[in-house]
Design a protein that fits this description.
Radius of gyration: 19 Å
Strand order of the largest sheet: 1-7-4-2
Shape: globular
Order of helices and strands: EHEHHHEHEHHHHEHEHEHHH
């Protein structure tokens, strides 16, 4: 199966993304394990903020020394964040995973990658540009992964924990019960799997964005290439044609899917109004 690319050049084509076929479960409920990630430029890669923090823009491959440096930097970043952030939230020091999630939420470079359970939220992020001229210059993209299928790649102790809790994602608590250190996690995952983590509801933004994180192990250097190599797991890459982006953006506003709801508070209102009154 690997990666299936779907090019969307009409609003009618968005329906496939919004209403992908879902089979009823044993309880007769139609629930999916699909997660989505929207980006405003199709050329953007599935790269974590940590990787962007140490990669040179002209080099996609890291040499051995830079990989070693990157691993050391990650621990320094997290240790220092925990030290200073504990002033506001002492519980951060209880789990490396909580420190990582809270840090990511506030802009810290981490190995986490943001996803959402809502295709509408993903579409909002695919149409969220700082430069509105980009709407007419670049195609956007929404990635879709099947977490339930990906979980079958996990080591047995991780699958056992998920099955015991009848879920397809970890919380900070359940992940900490399985693995406590980054080094152990990297050893467990190697280059063949990763987990999905539900963040604690520390503010309205996380709740409104229906947010989740994939915890990318050090062994997976290129997430897109990894997903493309999984012949028994289908990943979809929806490319949103630049010709419909302004129209799609206006429809998303009608669906109440805007900066005002995605980022509760004055910052979100200001961003929404700036775009609403933008003159093309």
């Amino acid at each position: 199966m690997s990666i299936t690319t779907v090019h969307i050049d009409s609003l009618e084509g968005i329906s496939e993304l919004l209403f992908e076929a879902v089979n009823a479960d044993e309880n007769g409920r139609y629930r999916t394990a699909y997660y989505y990630r929207g980006m405003p430029n199709v050329d953007y890669s599935l790269v974590t903020s940590l990787a962007r923090n140490y990669q040179h823009s002209d080099s996609k491959k890291l040499n051995a020394q830079r990989q070693k440096t990157a691993k050391a930097l990650e621990m320094h970043i997290l240790e220092n964040f925990t030290k200073y952030a504990s002033i506001e939230d002492p519980s951060i020091s209880e789990s490396i995973w909580k420190a990582m999630i809270v840090g990511q939420h506030h802009g810290l470079p981490t190995r986490l990658l943001d996803w959402t359970h809502s295709p509408l939220v993903a579409l909002h992020f695919s149409e969220a540009c700082d430069d509105f001229n980009d709407f007419e210059k670049n195609d956007a993209v929404v990635w879709r992964i099947d977490v339930r299928a990906l979980n079958k790649k996990l080591p047995e102790k991780y699958q056992k924990k998920l099955n015991g809790n009848k879920t397809h994602m970890f919380s900070v608590k359940t992940l900490s019960e399985v693995v406590k250190t980054i080094q152990e996690y990297d050893k467990d995952m190697g280059n063949s799997a990763f987990v999905t983590v539900e963040p604690p509801s520390i503010d309205e933004r996380i709740v409104n964005q229906y947010a989740f994180f994939t915890l990318v192990p050090n062994g997976i250097k290129d997430l897109a290439a990894f997903l493309d190599g999984l012949n028994d797991v289908e990943t979809k890459k929806y490319i949103i044609d630049k010709s419909i982006r302004w129209q799609l953006r206006e429809y998303l506003d009608q669906f109440n899917m805007s900066e005002r709801t995605i980022y509760p508070g004055l910052d979100g209102i200001a961003k929404w109004l700036a775009r609403h009154y933008y003159v093309k």
